[in-house]
Amino acid sequence: AHLDRIEAVDTDLHAFLHIDSDGALKRASEIDQLRADGHEVGPLAGVPVAVKDVLCTIGMPSTAGSKILEGWMPPYDATVVARMRSANLVLLGKTNMDEFAMGSSTEYSAYGPTRNPWDRERTPGGSGGGSAAAVGAFEAPFALGSDTGGSIRQPAAFTGTVGVKPTYGGVSRYGAIALASSLDQVGPVSRTVLDAALLHDVIGGHDPHDATSLTDFWPSFAAAAREGAEAPSLKGVRIGVIKELGGDGFQKGVNDRFTEALALAEAAGAEIVEVSAPHFEYGIAAYYLILPAEASSNLAKFDSVRFGLRVTPEGGGTVEQVMSATREAGFGPEVKRRVILGTYALSAGYYDAYYGSAQKVRTLIQRDFAAAFDRVDVLVSPSAPTTAFTFGEKTDDPLSMYLNDITTIPANLAGIPGMSLPMGLAAEDGLPTGLQIMAPAREDVRLYRIGAAFE
Ligand code: GLN
């Protein structure tokens, strides 16, 4: 049914970069057979899933939305992919994304943009617009995304879906093509909080292949989501509203829905507390130094020797000329912008002023969160300042694109978990809005319990 749906709508939506119909049908019948033979197949056996193209998959190309990796077939599965296969999920294919996950609209994909299923003249957000659109358009019941500065949560908000960025280290990054290693987290996109929890239970937990993977014991997120949904009370829950992430500068329909959500929470017994996070205003500035710095280093491996594309100048050329011609042809403008920015920020003489200062701001933001979580159980804000914007609206002005990340970036800088869930449609444009809930690090379970109660 999902392959039929993809066939019917994806020529127009372009949520997928690669569709593995044959592989999916074959795997589905194998799982049927396992079940018929009396094997224990697990709760998600046979359920299809879409995978963001940033994740390595055996047997399917993995391009991270870039020309430089066109047709690249990884020799191994990302840990999250391997875990989904072992849990007998069926991989439908790979979803579109901004090149190397740099962007907030999926317009920076080297393979053309994805359309928002709610309004095809609008973007689905980014960088994981493909995964969110696939779930929003019923092409897949759920999907995997990656979130470095909001790439799971903001597209979820733009498409009326649920997206979760787990605690940093809670889900393995092994086999996720790195953007900024200290910020990247893989997580689920789904239509309900429970679905996200079920998928998180499959992909999460310690992985010895990822040096930053936490060794914590994680409780069942699905159990927490069920608990929240069955007794949807917020009695005694202290909800902090971050003053700096709302109000002026946010779209009216978004603010209105957010105010309504808070009123509902209060009626369900929550205590609403206003909190201030004075350093959040520097979040975007710090992020857009730290991210390019790490990205410029991570992307150095695309050198025409080890992976993907190789362009040789006419008549041959030196190693340096081949590398330079390959990177010139293989990377898009946003990737080049960030590599240049990051290399500059890390260079001798500028390191302390830029990268060093950004790291200090990161610490101050972490302290803002710590102070806020002394007073409240969870923090909330709109997931994005606007609803889905139109194509071309922000591509000429990178800064205006970056500003859309104001609400999501702080959680990545602090390594804490964040969830976006549908908050209703904005009155002025009829488009989905998202409620962001954030919890202290390692308290992902709280997001699922409270998120399901909100839902
Ligand atoms: N929009 C953000 C950026 O462009 C977030 C990217 C992400 O989370 N991968 O960096």
TrEMBL record:
<protein>
    <recommendedName>
        <fullName>Glutamyl-tRNA(Gln) amidotransferase subunit A</fullName>
        <ecNumber>6.3.5.7</ecNumber>
    </recommendedName>
</protein>
<dbReference type="GO" id="GO:0050567">
    <property type="term" value="F:glutaminyl-tRNA synthase (glutamine-hydrolyzing) activity"/>
</dbReference>
<keyword id="KW-0648">Protein biosynthesis</keyword>
<keyword id="KW-0436">Ligase</keyword>
<comment type="similarity">
    <text>Belongs to the amidase family. GatA subfamily.</text>
</comment>
<dbReference type="GO" id="GO:0006412">
    <property type="term" value="P:translation"/>
</dbReference>
<dbReference type="GO" id="GO:0016740">
    <property type="term" value="F:transferase activity"/>
</dbReference>
<dbReference type="GO" id="GO:0005524">
    <property type="term" value="F:ATP binding"/>
</dbReference>
<comment type="function">
    <text>Allows the formation of correctly charged Gln-tRNA(Gln) through the transamidation of misacylated Glu-tRNA(Gln) in organisms which lack glutaminyl-tRNA synthetase. The reaction takes place in the presence of glutamine and ATP through an activated gamma-phospho-Glu-tRNA(Gln).</text>
</comment>
<keyword id="KW-0808">Transferase</keyword>
<dbReference type="GO" id="GO:0030956">
    <property type="term" value="C:glutamyl-tRNA(Gln) amidotransferase complex"/>
</dbReference>
<feature type="active site" description="Charge relay system">
    <location>
        <position position="127"/>
    </location>
</feature>
<keyword id="KW-0067">ATP-binding</keyword>
<keyword id="KW-0547">Nucleotide-binding</keyword>
<feature type="active site" description="Charge relay system">
    <location>
        <position position="52"/>
    </location>
</feature>
<comment type="subunit">
    <text>Heterotrimer of A, B and C subunits.</text>
</comment>
<feature type="active site" description="Acyl-ester intermediate">
    <location>
        <position position="151"/>
    </location>
</feature>
<feature type="domain" description="Amidase">
    <location>
        <begin position="1"/>
        <end position="447"/>
    </location>
</feature>
